[in-house]
Amino acid sequence: MNTIEQFNEHVMQTYGRIGLVMESGHGQTAVGEDGKEYIDFGSGIGTNSLGYCDEDWVNAICDQAHKIQHTSNYYYTKVQADFAKRLCEATGYEKMFFGNSGAEANECAIKLARKYSFDKYGKDAERNIIITLVNSFHGRTLCTLSATGQEVFHNYFFPFVGGFENVIANDIDDLMDKLNKLDNKVCAVMFEFVQGEGGVIPLQQSFVNTIMLECAKRDILTIADEVQTGVGRTGKLLTSELYNVKPDITTLAKGLAGGVPIGVCLANKKCSEVLGKGTHGSTFGGNPISCAGGNAVLDKVTKPEFLEEVRKKSEYFREKLVQIDEVEGVDGLGLMIGVRLKTKKAADVLNKCFENGLLILTAKDKLRFLPPLNISYEQIDKGLAILKKVLDEK
Ligand SMILES: Cc1ncc(COP(=O)(O)O)c(C=O)c1O
């Protein structure tokens, strides 16, 4: 029995997988069990932020594993304290909570927002509605699925968690209408600056400004889900910096620890004390090895010259993409790139690219690229040459 057959016999079939068994990786290259190499423009959905097995990152993880791999959250570790301090200082947030994934980071944000209103306005006020956006994606737990504004996800698992209302992204009138209708019942507005799974669609500045302004007026918390957009992905440490706003809460995961599980919920001073003893927790949250990986990522992504390079590479990527005939347009921000095609099907292009040694992603009907943040120009050229060949084929 080969690896794929063995896997499929024992693992629930919740993913449509590609027939590649990855054995190892180095830099921006993944290596299959059969020795075949692939340029990776997906980086594990934006998670291997420094590529495969970056040497400093590997050393940080291995050193930590030699010291202590886990302790319950009844104790402290220095590596956690260091990571938390560095992340809060780099992002300008007051405090954070440690989880292990994007969904967990968002669960924390949702609990925090509801308790903020509960503490301040009382249970009877029922100020617990969270507005999220149509076409959003916030995770796969029952609560974050309920928050996700896509009907396709609201099936099978009834009853879903109540208290979520959707507003059309970039529709200021719809936002104002819902805020006015749900007067005094809303505790938070939650959004992605760029809807990733939804098709790599950035929010407009005016829409973000309206969210920030109206929420501040009404004492509604703003939650930025930066699970995919955060940690340098768009050329700033946080995408909120690009929009020049500071949400009350920001969630991060994916690339934050370079490929080991982590998810954090960052809160500003206004709401950083809301979750007190016994209100939230996670056995693995703040795992020392993840924190060591996180420190190695922060060493690089907090440097202005690193972020400048992300911006330059993004421009380079885009300039080359628009030169391909089949490309209708390029969306997204930084190294979070969506490509609209004129005639071809994104899924077919993905398969053809795979056959030719290039790993890419799709989002809705677009091609999607989330390459490692430190991808080299050489690898961009090589990968895009494969893509061009596939797209030029008649
Ligand atoms: C914006 C956003 N939020 C949350 C999640 C869920 O993250 P995780 O799969 O780590 O739970 C994702 C995953 O794609 C995401 O893109």
Automatic annotation (TrEMBL):
<dbReference type="GO" id="GO:0030170">
    <property type="term" value="F:pyridoxal phosphate binding"/>
</dbReference>
<feature type="binding site">
    <location>
        <begin position="102"/>
        <end position="103"/>
    </location>
    <ligand>
        <name>pyridoxal 5'-phosphate</name>
    </ligand>
</feature>
<dbReference type="GO" id="GO:0005737">
    <property type="term" value="C:cytoplasm"/>
</dbReference>
<dbReference type="InterPro" id="IPR005814">
    <property type="entry name" value="Aminotrans_3"/>
</dbReference>
<dbReference type="GO" id="GO:0006526">
    <property type="term" value="P:L-arginine biosynthetic process"/>
</dbReference>
<dbReference type="InterPro" id="IPR015421">
    <property type="entry name" value="PyrdxlP-dep_Trfase_major"/>
</dbReference>
<dbReference type="InterPro" id="IPR015424">
    <property type="entry name" value="PyrdxlP-dep_Trfase"/>
</dbReference>
<keyword id="KW-0028">Amino-acid biosynthesis</keyword>
<comment type="similarity">
    <text>Belongs to the class-III pyridoxal-phosphate-dependent aminotransferase family. ArgD subfamily.</text>
</comment>
<dbReference type="InterPro" id="IPR004636">
    <property type="entry name" value="AcOrn/SuccOrn_fam"/>
</dbReference>
<comment type="subunit">
    <text>Homodimer.</text>
</comment>
<feature type="binding site">
    <location>
        <begin position="225"/>
        <end position="228"/>
    </location>
    <ligand>
        <name>pyridoxal 5'-phosphate</name>
    </ligand>
</feature>
<feature type="modified residue" description="N6-(pyridoxal phosphate)lysine">
    <location>
        <position position="254"/>
    </location>
</feature>
<dbReference type="Pfam" id="PF00202">
    <property type="entry name" value="Aminotran_3"/>
</dbReference>
<protein>
    <recommendedName>
        <fullName>Acetylornithine aminotransferase</fullName>
        <ecNumber>2.6.1.11</ecNumber>
    </recommendedName>
</protein>
<keyword id="KW-0032">Aminotransferase</keyword>
<keyword id="KW-0055">Arginine biosynthesis</keyword>
<feature type="binding site">
    <location>
        <position position="140"/>
    </location>
    <ligand>
        <name>N(2)-acetyl-L-ornithine</name>
    </ligand>
</feature>
<dbReference type="GO" id="GO:0003992">
    <property type="term" value="F:N2-acetyl-L-ornithine:2-oxoglutarate 5-aminotransferase activity"/>
</dbReference>
<feature type="binding site">
    <location>
        <position position="282"/>
    </location>
    <ligand>
        <name>N(2)-acetyl-L-ornithine</name>
    </ligand>
</feature>
<keyword id="KW-0808">Transferase</keyword>
<feature type="binding site">
    <location>
        <position position="283"/>
    </location>
    <ligand>
        <name>pyridoxal 5'-phosphate</name>
    </ligand>
</feature>
<dbReference type="GO" id="GO:0042802">
    <property type="term" value="F:identical protein binding"/>
</dbReference>
<keyword id="KW-0663">Pyridoxal phosphate</keyword>
<comment type="pathway">
    <text>Amino-acid biosynthesis; L-arginine biosynthesis; N(2)-acetyl-L-ornithine from L-glutamate: step 4/4.</text>
</comment>
<dbReference type="InterPro" id="IPR015422">
    <property type="entry name" value="PyrdxlP-dep_Trfase_small"/>
</dbReference>
<keyword id="KW-0963">Cytoplasm</keyword>
<dbReference type="InterPro" id="IPR050103">
    <property type="entry name" value="Class-III_PLP-dep_AT"/>
</dbReference>
<feature type="binding site">
    <location>
        <position position="137"/>
    </location>
    <ligand>
        <name>pyridoxal 5'-phosphate</name>
    </ligand>
</feature>
